[in-house]
Amino acid sequence: MWVVGIGLGANLGAREKTLQSAVDALARTPSITVRAASPIYETEPLGPPQPTYLNAAVRVETTLEPDALLDVLLAIESAHGRIRRERWGARTLDLDVLVVCDPESFDPRTITTPRLTVPHPHLLERTFALAPLLDVLPELAPRWGTTLRALGGPPVRAQGSQSIVVPERH
């Protein structure tokens, strides 16, 4: 089993509902248990002009190998209307495997496959991903908390947004 931090982002459509729907889809997936969800942050986009993002992260436990987990995330993105047209373009949903940790030590596992690099290669440069991740995996703060402070602190939490609800497993 692995503890995984998954980043969520959306800047098109009903952003908040999309984030919740994606977490619900993760919770319905066999071999994945959602354990925690971060607050929702509103952040400025990278790349071309586009609407602001809502970003969050979830902590999951899974027995899936990272490439199989990536397949699940890509299927959830597709089910939510994600079409990959341009790098850093607007999107209905973006799901990223940010970090895969040992369940006891929380040591991050380094993974490099043709499809996936974990930890996410730009994680420590992006407060919109790092801040929500540290909300759900505070065990990583001694390793990465100073980076968040060096980047100017966490992004702004979205005004009026509801928190993502962690679905109960039945």
Keywords:
alpha+beta, 5-stranded antiparallel sheet, 170 residues, 28% helix, Alpha-Beta Plaits, two-stranded antiparallel sheet
Q: Mind explaining what this structure looks like?
A:
With 170 residues, this protein is of the alpha+beta class. It has one domain (2-150): 7,8-Dihydro-6-hydroxymethylpterin-pyrophosphokinase HPPK (Alpha-Beta Plaits, 2-Layer Sandwich). Helix content is 28%, strand content 24%. The chain has helices at residues 15-28, 66-79, 127-136, 141-150; strands at 2-10, 32-37, 41-43, 53-62, 94-101, 111-112, 117-118. A hairpin with a 4-residue loop joins strand 6 and strand 7. The longest helix has 14 residues, at 15-28.
Q: Report the helical percentage.
A: 25-40%
CATH class: Alpha Beta
Q: Which structural category fits the helices and strands?
A: alpha+beta
The gyration radius over C-alpha positions equals 15 Å
Counting structural domains, the number is: 1
Task: Give the integer mean of the pLDDT values.
Answer: 86
Strand content: 15-25%
Query: Counting H and I runs of at least 4 residues, what is the number of helices?
Result: 4
Report low-confidence residues grouped into runs of 5 or more.
none
Biggest beta sheet attributes: 5 strands, antiparallel
